[in-house]
Design a protein that fits this description.
The complex is a heterodimer. By secondary structure, chain A is of the alpha+beta class. Chain A is built from 14 helices and 18 strands. Chain B is of the alpha/beta class. Chain B has a 5-stranded mixed β-sheet with strand order 1-3-2-4-5, with helices on both faces. A 4-stranded parallel β-sheet of chain B has the order 7-6-8-9, sandwiched between helices. Chain B is globular, with a radius of gyration of 20 Å. The chains are: A alpha+beta, B alpha/beta.
């Protein structure tokens, strides 16, 4: 793109405008690298809202695509610059501007890393629950843009439930502030939650106001080994129906436990076909009564084994292993594609059975099932022992069947990863033509020239 | 043998999850994806194996701007050892000829005699006095460690173990006080210390410059010398030497090298000194010391899982000392061996953050096992002592 570098360097200091082929390649994809890559023309690393605004005003004037990016850990390709143009790496906007203890709220820049934020609020006894498994590196801006969630969803909900307000730079460079430090607002359309999950297609999120909770005084990890995958699914539903809400309930298949054992000390026995990894939180009394209740249900379900982990370090090793699971699958398989269909929680056993039946029909790829069972957000995962065209065909057909299965149960195509390009063609299956048309009209209102993250949410990107 | 071609399968194991962002010291400062393991690995594959990218100035910068600390490898769930891949790529691209002949000759000389002998040491002292060297490089000690201690030093009291001491170049030439403390702390706790003659530089500086042949040469020397020594363990005070001997030395030798089995056996015996003593347990009770200290964790720490806890627990046994944790003990100080000479701005920025973190603790002593960190931090910490953790223990043992 002629003159682009020179123009951008007039707007942003030159060392923060990158156009060398090495840099452009580094920004060509997120964690969906093996699915598809883009070729940006420039990478800009803004440090202020004003710089973002200048870049957008310029891009709007010349109709240049702009793809905002956080830590590039997305699993749906939201940060992949499919149509070239400018990538805005937001990670340099990383100030925690305020933690307001008296209002239980915080104000941060979009590039703040989630783990840093967790640490900062914990230090003063507060709690920010969303914990997507890339939490050591992912950004709050990216979390809001995808409505990311993680295992805490079962008890505490997703990122969207904690967003109070946003500063957003619109397509033409104008800056708006939506919402505020109030925990409720009935003032017209809820733009804050329209931008949440908009994946950079409506504007660039630069600052975020978040709601916080008091830190639960204690927590305890419990591991349950189940004889079959179906039993694990049934047990989750029984626990929820029984009135106990663990802070996290993760559903982990045997194959994953084998991989996770490289982190877990001492390693877990692998006699079960599936495992439930739970975290209970609250006061010690509350935890004890929750544990009693859950152990009672598990015994009634005749699970293989139940362990309450007393040692904090050992418990942490389970959660670290769980966070690393996605990438760890590549130590045993050639390729892995992680889906995130969510179903109503009472349909989990049925969904799990459906996945098992589908899995039995496959020859080129393996279909595994795990995920945040507590909130119905499952992660059916396609694993490739070998990569070939035939495997790719079977994988694509399988993903489609998984999505249809989830939708037939009243589920959603994406519980937390977002649509990006990876699930773009499935979005209309869920929403239908009338809602898709409405979405497109909303997009047009915010981004008349279609410069914001084109190619995402629906395939033609407009 | 650290041949880039053999890493292709490992390279494509990178899932691009991006978790390496959490622990890469360079990325944490630069905040640029290009300077992150997942991008480096791709770029190396594209430029040097697939030849899809011409390896120009920017590529070399991406390749050089890596500390080889291996923290990314330790973080990587898929087991991609990007530090090895970077070292192999440097070896392939530079073939030992990254710098001009004078600098190469100096490095070679230094690595073979650890800079402590003859002209080189004298020249170093003169250059230092004249102010020709960066202030971060301390003057060579008038009396190197190897002149003061040789052969064997007996354990005081009943002998519990026998350890060979690998004396790194920095301890030998710049910081013999650390070596003295190592001897004191080990012998006081029933460890007989053997100092094998003929040991040379660990080889990391050569590896970092892509000079595989020179690195192999010194590795072979050290492996022969250290293997010939009948010791239960080989102890080093330097985390970088430890990393080199434990994780890289055997890797550098070809499969059919006669010393390869010995290099592998040696790797299993390598210990960082505080880790070794923490594991062995103290038998000599340290005296109380009213000292408050903070600990800076060197980047070259991934080679042993207990390295970060060892100095803390060991010094915790000294009555009346107070440990004050800094906010980010693991963040890089910016030195990176001689990395700071090449990337001054990056190094200064990293150091400024570290210094602020240290000062915020109010501690009067900063402890770290890495001599490069020590010398790089020292110049900005007037009035604050910077030393190896073993020195504090040795003092408490009456050393």
């Amino acid at each position: 793109m002629k003159g682009l570098e020179k123009d951008l360097r007039r707007l942003v200091p030159k060392e923060r405008v990158r156009t060398d082929p090495e840099d452009l390649r580094a920004y060509g994809a997120d964690a969906t690298y093996y699915v598809r890559r883009g070729n940006p023309d420039a990478v800009v690393l803004p440090e202020t809202t004003e710089e973002v605004s200048k870049v957008l005003r310029y891009a709007f004037g010349r109709t240049i695509p702009v793809t905002p990016r956080g830590a590039g850990t997305g699993l749906s390709g939201g940060a992949t610059p499919l149509k070239g143009g400018i990538v805005l790496d937001m990670k340099r906007m990383r100030q925690i501007l305020e933690i307001n203890r008296r209002n239980l709220s915080a104000r941060v820049e979009a590039g703040v890393v989630l783990a840093d934020f967790h640490r900062a609020v914990k230090k003063i006894g507060l709690f920010y629950p969303p914990n997507p498994q890339s939490m050591t590196v992912c950004t709050l801006g990216g979390n809001v843009a995808t409505r990311a969630c993680g295992p805490h969803g079962v008890k505490y909900g997703a990122t969207g439930d904690y967003v109070l307000g946003l500063e957003v730079v619109l397509a033409d460079g104008s800056v708006i502030e939506s919402g505020g430090d109030v925990v409720r607002s009935s003032a017209g359309y809820d733009l804050v939650h329209l931008f949440s999950g908009s994946e950079g297609t409506l504007g660039v999120i630069t600052k975020i106001r978040l709601r916080l909770l008091p830190m639960p005084p204690a927590h305890r990890t419990v591991v349950v080994a189940c004889e079959t995958i179906e039993q694990a699914g049934d047990t989750v539903t029984e626990i929820l129906a029984g009135g106990t809400l663990p802070a996290m309930i993760e559903f982990i298949p045997q194959m994953a436990v084998v991989a996770m054992n490289q982190y877990i000390r001492p390693p877990l026995t692998t006699q079960g076909q599936a495992y439930l990894l739970m975290d209970l939180d609250g006061t010690p009394d509350q935890i004890a009564s929750q544990a009693d209740h859950i152990l009672g249900i598990c015994r009634r379900m005749a699970v293989l084994d139940i362990r309450v982990i007393e040692d904090e370090k050992e418990a942490q090793s389970y959660w670290t292993a769980r966070s690393n699971l996605g990438a760890m699958l590549l130590t045993v398989m050639k390729k892995a594609v992680n889906e995130d269909v969510a179903v109503p929680r009472d349909r989990i056993p049925e969904f799990v059975r459906g996945i098992q039946a589908l899995s039995a029909t496959l020859t080129k790829v393996v279909l595994g099932i795990g995920g945040h069972a507590g909130d119905g957000n499952m992660h059916p995962t396609i694993l490739y022992p070998e990569v070939s065209d035939a495997a790719e065909d079977e994988a694509r057909a399988t993903i489609e069947k998984v999505v249809r299965l989830g939708l037939s149960m009243g589920g959603t195509v994406s519980g937390e990863h977002g649509i990006g390009f990876h699930k773009a063609e499935f979005l209309s299956w869920q929403l239908g033509p009338t809602q898709m048309e409405l979405l497109k009209r909303i997009k047009k209102a915010f981004d008349p020239k279609g410069i914001l993250n084109p190619g995402k949410l629906w395939l033609d990107g407009r | 043998m650290l041949d880039l071609g053999t890493y292709r399968d490992m390279m494509v194991k990178c899932s691009h999850c991006g978790l390496c962002q959490a622990t890469c010291p360079v990325y944490q400062e630069d905040q640029l994806q290009t300077h992150l393991a997942r991008a480096r690995v791709d770029l190396i594959r594209e430029a040097l194996l697939d030849k899809a990218l011409a390896p120009g100035r920017r590529f070399r910068e991406v390749l050089d701007r890596c500390l080889l600390c291996g923290n990314c490898a330790r973080t990587c769930p898929a087991g991609v050892r990007a530090d090895e891949i970077v070292a192999a790529a440097r070896s392939r691209l530079y073939g030992g000829k990254k710098h001009n002949a004078v600098r190469r000759a100096l490095l070679k000389r230094f690595m073979r005699d650890r800079g402590s002998k003859g002209l080189l040491a004298r020249a170093g002292r003169i250059a230092h006095k004249a102010g020709w060297l960066p202030e971060e490089l301390p003057p060579p000690s008038p009396e190197p460690f190897e002149k003061r201690f040789r052969d064997r030093i007996h354990a005081s009291g009943k002998m519990r173990a026998k350890a060979a001491y690998f004396v790194g170049c920095a301890t030998n030439t710049l910081y013999p006080d650390t070596g003295e403390a190592v001897i004191k702390a080990l012998t006081a706790n029933g460890v007989k210390v053997l100092i094998p003659q003929g040991q040379v530089c660990c080889g990391l500086p050569a590896l970092a410059e892509g000079d595989l042949a020179l690195a192999q040469e010194v590795v072979r020397r050290n492996v022969s010398v250290l293997s010939a020594c009948e010791a239960d363990a080989v102890v080093t005070d330097c985390t970088s030497c430890g990393m080199m001997l434990k994780t890289k030395a055997a890797l550098l030798l070809p499969e059919d090298d006669p010393l390869k089995p010995q290099a592998l056996a040696l790797a299993a015996k390598i210990w960082e000194v505080t880790d070794y003593l923490a594991n062995l347990g103290l038998v000599s009770a340290p005296s109380p010391m009213a000292v408050n200290w903070t600990y800076h964790l060197p980047c070259h720490r991934g080679w042993t899982p207990t390295l970060d806890e060892a100095p803390r627990s060991l010094l915790g046994e000294i009555p009346e000392t107070e440990r004050i944790e800094m906010e980010y003990p693991e963040s890089c100080c910016g030195a990176g061996g001689l990395f700071f000479l090449e990337f001054k701005e990056l190094a200064s920025a990293l150091r400024a953050r570290k210094i602020a973190d240290i000062r915020a603790t109010g501690a009067r002593t900063v402890l770290t096992q890495c001599p490069a960190c020590r010398s790089f931090l020292r110049t900005q910490l007037e009035g604050i002592r910077v030393a190896h953790p073993i020195s504090l223990l040795a003092e408490a043992l009456g050393g």
